[in-house]
Every structure is written in structure tokens, then in C-alpha cells.
């Protein structure tokens, strides 16, 4: 009976453990990178442009989609790649396979200041939903797909449109959060209101919707947008303090107009704009 039970356990593990089992370490504070340790024939997939460094003996290969449908032939590859187009990502991802002997390391860097968040999908019941540009890398076998919003309001005003990314499988995935990361554990029925751009991701049981801010002054002069994202538990929510859209907006606002740098916050700079004709005079 013990032998039969043992064999059954192995069969069950093979059926439900599809992703490669990888070890990792995260380094740094403001600009982090994740170092992933691969055993022979283990692989990891990553977004193009996130690669930092790797040991000799690791083979890098460009693949369609996330690599989870490679065994399904050409149609499976095209379908996987097509889902990535809908999320605004590249058709291709990069796979890193340890072809050498012994353990090898490959590292991936944050795209801008923030935190790298490890997500163990086996602890999230096999699914995690995140914003479109949050995904960094994952163990090969994790599916990077799309999550359609079934609510019109959320799709039109939710900041992420009708489509968010979903990570499915039983392996490790890594997402990036801008600025400081907040992790909130919501109880049944508990509601958290968040700026739509500040959501990193949440577990599948969380109910995500949008809510109108309300009030004439808030709407016209508030400067925080017209809608909140409402997240209702139970589940886990990850929130970032510096979404990339906010960072990019601040950078663009700080750029000198017309190529003239008159000094940040300078009264002379404003007067210079008027005298120089930047305001139409």
C-alpha cells in the first residue's frame, strides 16, 4: 500500500507541477535585480530588455509568446503570441536554458526604481492578475495570458482598459512595482480604494471595479483623476507608490520647453518665457 501511495503521489505531482522549479535571490534596494539559479535543463522566460547577466553555459533563445504552448505546434505558438499583442507587449519573449553542467545563474533587472515581487503561483491557487507592464520573468511553464474585464465601466475608466495580464501555473513568477510596495491582505467584504495606476496585481478572488470620485471640486480641481479602483476581499493586493505613467509624466513636465533650460522652479524662468514669446507674446 505504501508503494502504491508513493506512486500515486508521484503521478499527481507530475500532473500538476508543470513549471520548472527555480531558486532565486533578490538584490538591491531602489534598483533591484533578481538572480535565478537554474539546474541543468531548467529554464526561465523573461520580457525582452530585462536581461542583466548570465553564466557561461546558459543558452538564450527568442520564442513566440511565453513558451508554454511550444508543444502545441504552430497554432499554439501563434495563439500565445497573439495574446501578448492584446496586452501591448512584444510578440516575442526570451528563454534562458541551462545547457551546461551544474547550477548556473541568470539575472534580470528592474526597468525603473522600485521593488521586484516574487509570486509563488502554487500559493495563489494557480493564478495571479497584474497590470500589463508589471511582468518581469517566470519559470518556464508559467503561462502569461490576458484577463478580460467583463464590466463596461472598469474597461472604459479603469486605467488598464478591458485587458490585464494573468499569470497561471504552479511555478515562480516575478513582477515589478514602482517606488515603494504595499501588500494588503483583505478580509471577506473588506474594500480598498486605490488610484487606478497604483495597482500592481491581486489574487483571483479579489473583486476589482471602479468608482466615480464624485463632487464638482474633486472632479474639476482634484487632480487625482475621476475614478478610484475598488478592490474587495478576500484576497491579497499589491500596490505601488510610483507607477511608470506617473514617473513619465513628472519627467516630461520637468523638461525645458523649446530646449531652453531657465532653472527649475525659477521666477526668472517664467518671466523669461513671457519675454521670450513662449506664451504667445
Total count of helical runs of at least 4 residues = 6
**What are the secondary-structure elements, in order, as H or E?**
HEEEEEHEEEEEEHEEEEEEHEEHH
What's the alpha carbon Rg, rounded to whole Å?
A: 23 Å
Summing up helix and strand content along with how strands pair, one would put the structural category as alpha+beta
The largest sheet is:
6 strands, antiparallel
Give the tally of β-strands.
Answer: 19
The best one-word shape is globular
Share of helix, binned: 10-25%
Q: Which CATH class?
A: Alpha Beta
Strand order of the largest sheet: 5-6-3-10-13-8
Distance between the termini: 91 Å
Instruction: Indicate how many domains the architecture comprises.
Output: 1
Please state the average pLDDT score: 76
Which second-level CATH architecture applies? 4-Layer Sandwich
The CATH superfamily appears as: Mitochondrial biogenesis AIM24
* CATH-defined topology: Double-stranded beta-helix
Regions with little confidence, pLDDT below 50 for 5+ residues: 1-16, 217-223, 264-268
Amino acid at each position: 500500500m505504501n508503494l502504491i501511495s508513493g506512486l500515486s503521489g508521484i503521478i499527481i505531482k507530475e500532473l500538476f507541477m508543470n513549471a520548472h522549479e527555480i531558486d532565486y535571490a533578490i538584490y538591491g534596494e531602489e534598483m533591484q535585480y533578481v538572480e535565478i539559479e537554474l539546474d541543468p535543463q531548467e529554464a526561465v522566460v523573461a520580457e525582452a530588455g530585462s536581461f542583466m547577466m548570465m553564466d557561461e553555459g546558459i543558452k538564450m533563445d527568442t520564442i513566440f509568446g511565453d513558451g508554454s504552448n511550444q508543444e502545441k505546434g504552430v497554432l499554439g505558438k501563434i495563439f500565445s503570441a497573439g495574446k501578448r499583442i492584446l496586452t501591448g507587449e512584444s510578440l516575442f519573449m526570451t528563454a534562458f536554458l541551462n545547457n551546461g553542467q551544474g547550477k548556473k545563474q541568470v539575472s534580470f533587472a528592474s526597468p525603473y526604481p522600485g521593488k521586484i515581487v516574487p509570486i509563488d503561483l502554487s500559493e495563489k491557487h494557480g493564478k495571479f492578475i497584474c497590470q500589463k507592464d508589471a511582468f518581469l520573468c517566470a519559470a518556464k511553464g508559467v503561462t502569461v495570458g490576458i484577463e478580460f474585464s467583463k464590466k463596461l465601466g472598469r474597461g472604459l475608466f479603469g486605467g488598464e482598459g478591458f485587458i490585464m495580464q494573468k499569470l497561471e501555473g504552479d511555478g515562480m513568477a516575478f513582477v515589478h512595482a514602482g517606488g515603494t510596495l504595499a501588500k494588503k491582505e483583505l478580509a471577506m467584504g473588506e474594500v480598498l480604494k486605490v488610484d487606478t495606476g497604483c495597482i500592481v496585481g491581486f489574487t483571483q478572488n479579489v473583486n476589482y471595479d471602479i468608482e466615480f470620485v464624485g463632487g464638482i471640486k474633486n472632479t474639476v480641481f482634484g487632480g487625482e483623476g475621476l475614478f478610484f479602483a475598488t478592490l474587495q476581499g478576500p484576497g491579497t493586493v499589491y500596490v505601488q507608490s510610483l507607477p511608470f505613467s506617473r514617473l513619465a509624466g513628472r519627467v516630461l513636465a520637468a523638461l525645458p520647453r523649446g530646449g531652453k533650460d531657465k532653472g527649475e522652479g525659477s521666477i526668472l524662468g517664467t518671466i523669461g518665457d513671457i519675454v521670450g514669446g513662449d506664451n504667445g507674446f
